[in-house]
Specification:
Strand content: 5-15%
Structural class: alpha/beta
Number of strands: 5
Largest sheet: 5 strands, parallel
Strand order of the largest sheet: 2-3-1-4-5
Radius of gyration: 16 Å
Number of domains: 1
Distance between the termini: 26 Å
Shape: globular
Order of helices and strands: EHEHHEHHEHHEH
Number of helices: 8
CATH class: Alpha Beta
């Protein structure tokens, strides 16, 4: 059985990841593709429990090292029990965030050792990497405008400087891993973004990869 396509969405808060995740799920459903939609942190019962701890505003005293290890614990459970089995069954997996978020948030913004993070990522993901990563890029100012009217979680409450570091690192990762990254202007209309994403997915499924 042919392995499914592993697609991830990345970006700073409010960039439109959830909207596009749903749009691509709708596209796969309409075209009778087998697929799984999931998210990080979360995706399984245990991982969702860890997500609650990570995003709870009551946990402001959490050390960066603790935060990193909790994200990795959630990812290990998620990848091992949900993502890998789905891909092995030939399902396409659509994931709202994956390990690039750890490199951006805990690596760049929290200034933790990226070499150590890379080792943890390889361990926690069972050496599983996305086939396609869509970075929906917006400015920190645009992000703030989009999320200012909703209740912010612990990560969303971080400073403008913090989120700028996150955005910068996502753009760095896109250059470093240009074999799988597609950067899309997140300020465009959602339907325009969806069309661009579907175009790239079709190319990948047809074996014509424009990321190279």
């Amino acid at each position: 059985m042919k392995k499914g396509l592993f697609i991830t969405f990345e970006g700073i808060e409010g960039c439109g990841k959830s909207t596009q995740t749903k749009a691509i799920a709708d596209y796969f459903k309409e075209n009778s593709f087998p697929f799984l939609v999931t998210r990080e942190p979360g995706g399984t019962f245990i991982s969702e429990k860890i997500r609650d701890i990570l995003l709870d505003n009551a946990n402001q005293e959490m050390n960066p090292e603790t935060e990193l290890l909790l994200y990795m614990a959630s990812r290990s459970q998620h990848t091992g029990t949900k993502i890998i089995p789905a891909l092995s069954e030939g399902k396409h997996v659509i994931c709202d965030r994956y390990y690039d978020s750890t490199l951006a948030y805990q690596g760049a913004a929290r200034a933790l050792d990226t070499k150590f993070i890379d080792l943890l990522i390889d361990f926690a993901t069972y050496s599983t990497s996305p086939d396609l990563t869509f970075l929906l890029d917006i400015s920190v100012e645009e992000s703030e405008q989009r999320i200012c009217h909703r209740g912010k979680d612990r990560m969303e409450r971080e400073s403008k400087e913090f989120h700028q570091k996150v955005r910068n690192e996502f753009l760095n990762l896109a250059k470093k891993y240009n074999n799988r990254y597609i950067v899309i202007d997140g300020t465009q209309k959602p339907e325009v973004i969806t069309e661009k994403i579907i175009y790239q997915i079709k190319l990948k499924l047809d074996g014509k990869d424009e990321t190279k």
